[in-house]
Amino acid sequence: MGDYHVLKIGNATIGGPLGSATGLVVGSIFYDKHSIVRDPFAGEFDETRAALLLDRVNRLSKQYGVQMALDVIAASPEAIERFLEFVGPRTNLPLLINATEAQVRMAGLEAAARLGILERSVYASLNEDTEDEELELLGRYRPAAVMILASDISDPTPGGSCEMIENYYHPMLKEIGVAAPIVDLGTMDPPSIGLNIRQIQAVRERFGYPAGCAFSNCYPQWTGLNRLGREWVNLSLAAALVACRAAGGDYLHYGIIEKSAMAAHVAATAEVFYGFAAQELDGHKLPEGHALWQMFKLSGVTE
């Protein structure tokens, strides 16, 4: 394998050998049917509740010593602009510009440029439906990172994901001048997280790119688990987070922002183990405020 590609997204670092920095723990805000959103197309929302959620993630990231990010999801160009205008000044954490429609992602990219937050923005994401207009815009406005969705339904093996990156995404990335993307290995259903784990390992070994997945996407369809209740769902989410991170996962999407405390605690616990080994066995200098130290100061954590 070649060298790992390490990307700087604002104050966060993603990629590199396991444990050299914490994984990027990501939660969604303004998602479909989010209770704080009044009108998803106009971008109208409860600002008081949104601010409380953002403050909570800011606090958790610092207190736990885990790198966290916000996945800003929108249904229209107007909404993504309003959301970014609100979120941008209230956090220094990385922001994913995320939408199903290309026009919305493009509006988000332009808004990020206007707001001066490109250096901590992630374009999420390039996919099989990416339009030429998106690539042209990315050539003009360069975010800190570009995410690619490397999920080949016809070949969901680690080799299939790697070939998709090589044959489909590399020409696209070359066109916009991106040397290393963040690779999202799409999660189809609960058992396929096992495939994601192998895909993460394969992508990191072959390309050295930061890689991970939104393992949370599959949990709503796990009906038997959901019948047990939220506590049990969260335990299974925690297991997925730790398993993906142990495979080298750099991008760890835990789902809705309301689960941020659970995700921060679980991720920080695991990072104590990975960080200590990276420091003691591999000689890595861990960043200030790393979970290895913060997890022994938890008397100050309040919810």
TrEMBL record:
Superkingdom assignment: Bacteria
Record-given protein name: Tetrahydromethanopterin S-methyltransferase subunit H
UniProt key word Transferase: yes
Family indicated by similarity: Belongs to the MtrH family.
Taxonomic lineage of the native organism: Bacteria, Bacillati, Bacillota, Clostridia, Eubacteriales
InterPro entries on file: Dihydropteroate_synth-like_sf, MeTrfase_MtrH/MtxH
GO biological-process terms attached to the record: methylation; one-carbon metabolic process
Keyword Transferase attached: yes
GO molecular function term, any single one: methyltransferase activity
Keywords on record: Methyltransferase, Transferase
